[in-house]
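Final report, results section. Input specification for complex C-07:
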Amino acid sequence: MMDVPVSWYLILAVTLFGIGTVGVLTRRNLLVVLMSLEIMLNGVNLAILAFARHHGDAQGQAAVFIVMAVAAAEVAVGLALAIALFRHEGSVDLDRATRMKG
Amino acid sequence: MSDLLSISPLLVTAFTGMLVMALDLLAGQGRKAFLSWVTVAGFAVAGILAYVLWSGDPVVLQRPFLANVMLLDAHGWFFSEVVLLAGALAALLAADHMPEQGIDGGETYALLSFSVTGAILLMVATDLVTLFLGLEIMSLALYVMAAGKRSSPFSAEAGIKYFLLGGVASAFLLMGMAFLYGATGKLNLVDIARFLANHPEGADPLLVQGAMILLVVAMAFKVAAVPFHFWTPDVYEGAPTPVTAFMAGAVKAAAFAVLARLVLTLARAPAFQGTAFSPADLLLGLAVVSMVVGNLLGIVQTNVKRILAYSSIAHAGYLLLGVWATQASVSETGVQTLNDSVPFYLLAYAVSTVGAFGVLALLGRSGEEDMSLSRIAGLGRRHPVLGVALLVAVLSLAGLPPLGGFMAKFNLFRQVLAADPAGNLPWVILAVVMSVVGLYYYLRIVLYAFFREPEGQPVVAISSAAGSVALAVTVALALFLGIAPAKFLDASRMASQATVLTGSIAASRAGAAPVQTATPPAAAGIQLKPGVQIPVRTFNSKEGRGNLH
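Structure output:
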């Protein structure tokens, strides 16, 4: 079986992270932004897992579970905030959330 | 059992949050103000425990699963006290402000307790995963608190902006941690620092440098340093005022504690020696632009909360200058540790900024919250006590004697200069000039409060016993820190000497917990293939702003 070198995983992870970052910065729909945030975190998870395998170390795999749990909690808060925004503005478009400027 | 006692400040704050949630169910509608006193009592107990248990030599935890993830020392102690103090003051300010604003619920106090728990965990953590957990516990509670005023679209907007930027910062922090893990195969900060020092060739310099950039960027978000500050004015303005006070006072202290510990511990790595890039340059750059932008943009603001937000950005700049100008450790030769004056500065800043936001929290009536400068006109004549509290807080922020802010700034600039008298002189001069520029908007607040007549409705204050106690504490502390700072400066020195994690601490800890010596021998760092470039995505302010507006 061919062994995939760790740098390939890392390139994929950083690419995912970059896609997520661009998504957070450019998309206007709060739900899509939340998804982009998840892609960033999944990029991180992939990187940690690849490194954990490379080092033969179980700590990294445990860390990924914790990151996943925290990400789920974060999304719960994010969705609650989306509901709060929807109640006030009637949409989850971030362009509506621009009352304060300067 | 003794381990449980050692970490009891954390347990007490977490338990306070749960107790408040339970009592919230029992208390009737409109009778939630006593929960703020419960919270304060919990924080006071936690503060005393932290003083008794953590202020001396580093506590040796027996169980390996605890000893590996946290270090209870003077660093954790001092910053925990700052966070607990700011949290208790915010709880007192919320007691009458929240019902006035139509937020009648105990959840603010429960969230405050959890946020404080997270902040303390963040500051005592030596393990990257624990550090991340602490940061998230602190932040998630804060996002909800910022959006806590459900009737206000501004509050929801503040919560969303804080959440999105905080989420991005967390992701950057995690990616930085992943890179560090990849370079060293370890998650414990002490082990990482030791690995980097002992195996200069083992860790890929590209990964280590990328990790450093990502970590600094993530923490720059949290401390509100330019160019990662753009969320700050909006969030400070939209969040309920006691929550803003907590954010400005406690979260900044926690974020700076972690920033200093992470960056200064890792900056000793050989990966940074002899390269064009160094973490110090990054800190200095952030410091300079934060001082300049924070003070200049503060001038054009007309909303008091926004002025204080820009003041917070400017103070982040001075503090970054302090973190940048490290000094020699007294306990260990050849080790650079955090500047003595930084913890003291954070304490003085927390007291002053909570005082300033505290006065604002006691103004306003029946849910409307307009904090434009003209609205505080005539405050000094109408409510002299509040006026004096505002005066003391704002002058302390401006750094005028004989207040705590002056002593903090004076010590900071003096010690930055002492670190390298010739090389640091331009930066200290810039900081002093920018402080003078900042004086303009601080004095503008004073001018409006004392020398302007109100145009329309005169300003009305909420009568609040708890809030008055909080303001009295801030005024007394601001004066005390300015007049008799010796004890606090000593404590600050102890804290800063413990900030940078060094090998000797690790050695004494490893001796106490023999279980953790069973590290896998195959600890060779990762070497990327030559020619493989890792694109490190740094955050560019222009892109970032596009998200918010």
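The radius of gyration of chain A is 17 Å. The mean pLDDT of chain A is 90. This concludes the modelling results for the funded period.
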